[in-house]
Amino acid sequence: MAHGVPVVATSVAVEGMDLKDGHDVLLADAPEQFAKAVIELYQSKELWNRLSVNGVRKTQEVYSVEAAMKRLQQLMSNAHQQNTVAGRQKKLSTSSSQVESRSSEPERAV
């Protein structure tokens, strides 16, 4: 994909990769479907070019070194760290207030 070669793959192979059938790749789970998809790719210049362009674009957007660096910078940024800390503090605050409200309830006789 990264080199512009269209891909025919099984649904298991692309699981979790956010690739769309007919847009980024061709999906084929049975041997007959796989063979048919490969033949279709070789016979359709439009399909070949569409998968080629979209595959390169998807690879650059999601799986390139630049995309990984951007994501790491985002994760290491102060804004992300502050959001994470604020979220944890909110959870702790909610948990402690729930504990306090339980401890202020009168005990019931059994």
Q: What's the total helix number?
A: 4
By DSSP, the count of extended strands is 2
Give the strand order of the largest sheet, numbering strands 1, 2, ... along the chain. Answer: 1-2
Task: Pick out the low-confidence regions.
Answer: none
Order of SSEs, N→C? EEHHHH
Distance between the termini: 69 Å
What is the percentage of strand-forming residues?
under 5%
Structural class per helix/strand content? mainly alpha
Describe this structure in words.
There is one protein chain. This protein is mainly α. It folds into 2 domains: 1-63, no CATH class; 65-103. Helix content is 64%, strand content 4%. The protein has helices at 31-43, 45-63, 65-76, 78-103; strands at residues 8-9, 26-27. The mean pLDDT is 84.
Topology, please?
Elements: E1 8-9, E2 26-27, H1 31-43, H2 45-63, H3 65-76, H4 78-103
Parallel strand pairs: 1-2
Essential attributes:
single chain, 110 residues, mainly alpha, 4 helices, 64% helix
State the gist of this model.
This protein has 110 residues and is mainly alpha-helical. It is built from 4 helices and 2 strands, in the order ββαααα.
